[in-house]
Design a protein that fits this description.
The complex is a heterodimer of chains A (422) and B (605). Chain A has 422 residues and is mainly alpha-helical. Chain A has helices at residues 6-9, 12-32, 48-68, 71-76, 78-95, 115-131, 141-161, 164-170, 174-179, 185-202, 205-222, 227-254, 257-267, 276-288, 301-304, 316-348, 353-377, 395-413, 417-421; strands spanning 97-99, 102-108, 111-113. Chain A has a 3-stranded antiparallel sheet. In chain B, the strands form 6 sheets. In chain B, strands 2, 3, 4, 5, 10, 16 and 17 form a 7-stranded mixed sheet that branches. A 5-stranded antiparallel sheet of chain B has the order 12-11-21-20-19, with helices on both faces. In chain B, strands 1-8-9 form a 3-stranded antiparallel sheet. The longest helix of chain B has 28 residues, at 2-29. Mean pLDDT of chain B is 88; it is low at 599-605. The chains are: A mainly alpha (422), B alpha+beta (605).
């Protein structure tokens, strides 16, 4: 059967969204490091802007390369790719070079990449491959455990590297699992636990405990004649109290001091105004000073004069907020929303379970990055150093996001062939 | 499964909507972030204006600004390779160097702070060549007050850093910590004129505080407005002469031009050299001056309270004749029984009573004023009469402020009815309780300025003009000057003035007599319970078309006919003729020969 040219099957809407984000990101990196005293060029390779241009160019090559690979290869080699990246993660744990407190860089001469960035799509592929088998059901305990293991293994290795932020991204892969029939209780319990954790930080623990106790007693009283429910109320109550009581433990024993400060300064930026709180405060000042339409391109003062930390990478959103105001911020958020919803739509139209799960993997990883990154810049989430996809400066992240996305676009382009094969 | 996809989509939208609302709240609703952003990047650099200059009445410069240089350091940029050499250059010890650097660093590592205040000119010259070798150090010019005279300090006041309490009181909101403000004297009362208005430039700075750019193209920048120049009524030559005469004494001299209210000289003794409170000298010398038992910071002409003594008799005479209780020719026989008196008992009319300073005459005259027989009861009668008398005394500028353009003018004291009520009980006092007021003693208190003004009133035969030290502000006349006319017939003054002329010509003030001067006046020997009497004199010259009215007090100098009249006469001569023809009198004053004189004769009282 004569096939349509590949170009007709690519989802050009997604490619357009991708290109727009990358281009806008590049311009904003320029704006963020713009120094009015020097007449900088967009193409100066001594600057982040110039380097990002090189990263963009190579990303396009990578995207092209992904399209040249046979689409069946992603399915076939999923576990191998996954295995290679796990090996790399293990390798750099022992031999990687340490940058800013975390051992996550793999150096080739003067050039470094972060395997943990690439482990994201590899894990998504592996999960899709494993769950893509028609007989696998997530309600089955063995399947569930295996799926968890696939996600938790790279996550664990990344934590060991000291890069908690990137590690947390793997947790996003619960979204495709949820899509594929993960018992809803698990994510609900997880979300409730996070909410309780945050609530405990903001409200006095004793007050919270009293409220919960009263709630439990009320629940017990109302269900006095239904022993089964009584048991549930009791179990849930004990879990909630446990969660509340665990906050201090988690804060002081699990989190590292700098992470503790980040969590605490989310609640009260004045705890550490010149340290962790500084980032949040300055980021909010930059965004908040944007007003309706912002100060204009290259006119942002907070980012330009280095008040905002990491203004080209993790805090790139500040430049948008400051220079383009609410309108610009909403436009960027709308671009991401469109991309995410488009990808959900694409994932749902896949004929193969593998491609669908992978599609949701892409959605979940992009969504997690987008949500956490923006939430931290506007003070809704502790500062976790993860980049804004396609937007932030950085080669590894741009490459890995490009590969992540274009594998899915490649799979999508061939979605009709799946039936022919099986 | 489609319901789960719905949950995923809903979750994405939920997060997105949360972000939009949050962004709306911090970008649109909350103004604080915009203010914080501006505070982050805008640094205000204050430019101080030049303070106005001060000239005397004949355009001689008295006060000007001179540049001084502070050696500043920015610790972060500072690099001293050879500390020992650097310390040798500055003439400081190595420990001091370290201490100063530490202090600067404590203030800020990126902002400049004073390393050495007011370096000498010689050091400045040396530093100019050498400083290139020491990055992070630079010389900052600033101005301090300099003076062409070593006197006038109490009148001029001084300038210092604004205090916390001043900042609290500042309703105009002009002052900032670290600003300079006039403290005391003219510098205080004309602060708003002299200081000018500071300018400011706004610079955009980065997170290290390093200037990047003008803020909004300098739209909000303002140039400093220099302070206005002020011309005094003070005649510097006369002032300096008067200061010379008062040197080593305690007391005051006030000289006023009667026709204008111009204060020609204002001496407070002892005083201090104004340089002692200029620039960095202020903090060194102020504690000593404030502790000095002679109170050099006390501006006696305006702040000292003395009983007027016999000079009070002049206005007593005018009031009594105005009230009609005595005619000028009316002869009153005194027997010396009412009050202590150096004038012999006998027959006195008004002119003679002034000339011989008869205490008993004025005791009897004031009794007529206070007890006019309006009421049956002597108590009630005294009450009415005293209040009438008191109102008239106040017309002469006593017991109230005259409105001089210098700070801390006192009211003096003309006791109220309520005062005597408290002292003796209501309706329990009458004239005999307050008889010592008749000769200017008792509770009466006046300032030397009020007495000089009294001299001006007499010289003018019945009016005065607000005494003032500032004639012009930037060539504009001082606007706060008023003429006050007293409600007495001009002829009443002539009798008194005739008496005053004789006081100097052939009475107690004869030591101050000079035929060409036509000095009229009245001496006072102010009783001082704590020691030697104070010597006082009030008068004017010449008798007609007077050019100068003077009050002089020399504390613990005995009779008014000695030190005070001599000082006044010499100053009047100096002012009117431009020179002094009586070296022996000058010697008498300067060398304080009056202290060695034998007990006074009657004529000197």
């Amino acid at each position: 059967m004569r096939q349509d040219p590949l170009s007709q099957k690519i989802d050009w809407v997604t490619v357009l969204l991708f290109s727009t984000l990358v281009l806008l990101g590049w311009l904003n990196i320029y704006a963020a490091e713009y120094d009015p005293a020097q007449n900088q060029s967009l193409f100066d390779f001594g600057t982040s802007t110039g380097k990002q241009l090189a990263w963009i160019a190579t990303s396009i090559v990578l995207a092209w390369a992904v399209f040249l690979i046979d689409f069946r290869a992603f399915d076939s080699f999923a576990f191998i790719v996954y295995g290679v990246l796990l090996a790399l993660l293990l390798f750099i744990l022992m031999a990687g070079k340490e940058v800013a407190g975390s051992r996550s860089w793999l150096g080739f001469g003067g050039f470094g990449i972060q395997p943990s960035e690439f482990a994201k799509f590899a894990t998504a592929l592996a999960l899709a491959k494993y769950l893509g088998h028609a007989t696998k059901r997530l309600t089955d305990l063995k399947t569930l455990s295996f799926s968890f293991a696939i996600v938790l293994l790279p996550m664990f290795l990344t934590v060991l590297q000291g890069d908690t932020g990137t590690a947390m991204v793997f947790a996003a892969l619960f979204i495709p699992m949820f899509r594929e029939g993960l018992p809803p209780l698990l994510p609900i319990v997880a979300i409730v636990a996070i909410l309780i954790f945050l609530l405990t930080l903001m409200v006095n623990q004793t007050v919270l405990l009293v409220i919960v106790s009263v709630g439990i007693l009320l629940g017990l009283g109302l269900n006095a004649k239904r022993p089964r429910r009584l048991g549930w109320v009791f179990v849930i109550g004990v879990m909630i109290i446990g969660a509340i009581r665990s906050v201090d433990f988690v804060l002081s024993d699990v989190l590292k001091p700098h992470q503790q400060r980040r969590v605490l300064s989310l609640i009260n930026p004045n705890i550490d105004p010149l340290g962790a709180g500084w980032n949040v405060t300055q980021s909010k000042i930059a965004i908040g000073s944007g007003g309706w339409t912002g100060k204009g391109f290259l006119e942002g003062t907070q980012t330009k004069f280095d008040f905002v930390p990491a203004q080209t990478t993790d805090f790139i959103f500040c430049t948008i907020g400051e220079e383009h105001g609410w309108v610009g911020s909403i436009f960027l958020i709308a671009l991401f929303t469109t991309l995410l919803l488009r990808l959900v739509m694409l994932a749902e139209r896949q004929k193969s379970v593998f491609a669908r799960i992978y599609g949701f993997g892409v959605v979940s990883i992009l969504f997690f990055h987008f949500a956490v990154n923006i939430a931290m810049t506007i003070g809704l989430f502790p500062v976790i150093g993860i980049p804004l996809p396609f937007f932030s400066y950085g080669g590894s992240s741009l490459w890995s996001f490009t590969i992540l996305l274009f594998i899915f676009l490649k799979l999508d382009a061939h979605r009709m062939q799946v039936l022919q094969r099986w | 499964m489609s319901s789960r996809v719905f949950v995923i989509r809903a979750f994405i939208l939920f997060v997105v909507i949360t972000f939009s609302v949050r962004l709306f709240s911090i970008q649109i609703l909350d103004e604080n972030y915009k203010i914080a952003a501006e505070n982050n990047i805008v640094q205000k650099i204050v430019q101080y204006p030049y303070r106005g200059l001060i000239y005397d009445s004949r355009d001689s410069l008295i006060v000007y600004n001179s540049p001084v240089f502070d050696l500043m350091v920015v610790p972060k940029e500072a690099r001293v390779d050879d500390t020992v050499k650097f310390c040798q250059l500055l003439g400081i010890q190595v420990e001091d160097f370290e201490k100063k650097m530490e202090k600067a660093l404590r203030y800020s590592s990126i902002l400049a702070s004073q390393f050495e205040e007011q370096i000498s000119d010689a050091l400045f010259a040396k530093l100019q060549d050498q400083l290139v070798n020491y990055p992070g150090f630079y010389v900052l010019p600033r101005t301090i007050r300099s003076y062409e005279t070593d006197g006038l300090a109490n009148l001029l006041g001084y300038v210092g850093e604004v205090s916390g309490s001043d900042l609290g009181k500042d309703t105009s909101g002009y002052y900032r910590p670290g600003d300079y403000i006039g403290i005391g004297g003219l510098e205080k009362s004309y602060e708003e004129v002299l200081r000018g208005r500071r300018g400011a430039t706004y610079k955009v700075v980065n997170v290290q505080g390093i200037v990047q750019d003008d803020f909004r193209q300098g739209r909000f920048d303002t140039l400093p407005d220099p302070g206005l120049d002020v011309q005094l009524t003070i005649n510097l030559e006369v002032q300096q002469y008067a200061e010379k005469l008062m040197k080593g004494k305690v007391g005051s001299v006030v000289a006023i031009e009667p026709s204008t209210g111009n204060i020609l000289a204002l001496v407070s003794a002892p005083s201090y050299d104004p340089v002692l409170l200029s620039g960095k000298e202020l903090s060194r010398n102020f504690p000593n001056l404030i502790r000095d038992e002679n109170k050099p910071l006390f501006n006696r002409p305006l702040q000292a309270r003395y009983p007027p003594g016999s000079m009070f008799k002049t206005l007593q005479g005018v009031i009594a004749m105005h009230m009609g209780v005595v005619e000028k020719e009316e002869e009153i026989t005194t027997d010396g029984s009412n009050i202590g008196d150096l004038a012999p008992p006998g027959v006195y009319d008004m002119e003679k009573a002034i000339q011989f300073s008869s205490n008993n005459y004025f005791y009897l005259v004031m009794k007529r004023m206070v007890q006019q027989g309006i009421e049956e009861s002597a108590f009630l009668d005294s009450r009415i009469g005293y209040e009438k008398w008191r109102e008239m005394v106040k017309v002469f500028g006593l017991g109230r402020k005259l409105g001089v353009d210098l700070p801390n003018e006192i009211l003096g004291n003309v006791p109220t009815i309520e005062y005597y009520d408290r002292l003796y009980g209501v309706n329990r006092w009458k004239y005999s309780n307050l008889g010592s007021l008749s000769i200017g003693q008792g509770e009466l208190l006046v300032s030397p300025l009020q007495m000089a003004n009294l001299g001006a009133i007499l010289a003018n035969r019945g009016y005065f003009i607000t005494p003032h030290v500032v004639d012009q502000i930037n060539d504009w006349p001082n606007p706060n000057i008023e003429k006050e006319i007293l409600p007495f017939d001009a002829s009443l003054y002539e009798t008194i003035i005739d008496g005053m002329e004789k006081v100097v010509k052939e009475g107690s003030g004869i030591r101050g007599y000079l035929d060409s001067l036509f000095l009229c006046g009245k001496t006072s020997t102010v009783q001082n319970p704590h020691g030697e009497d104070h010597s006082g004199f009030m008068g004017f010259a010449p008798k007609y078309d007077s050019r100068i009215a003077i009050a002089a007090y020399v504390e613990n100098a005995g009779q008014g006919g000695r030190a005070a009249v001599s000082v006044a006469s010499l100053i009047a001569e100096k002012y009117i003729f431009g020179q002094v023809s009586r070296p022996w009198l000058e010697d008498y004053v300067v060398k304080e020969l009056y202290l060695n004189a034998p007990r006074p004769t009657i004529a000197e009282n």
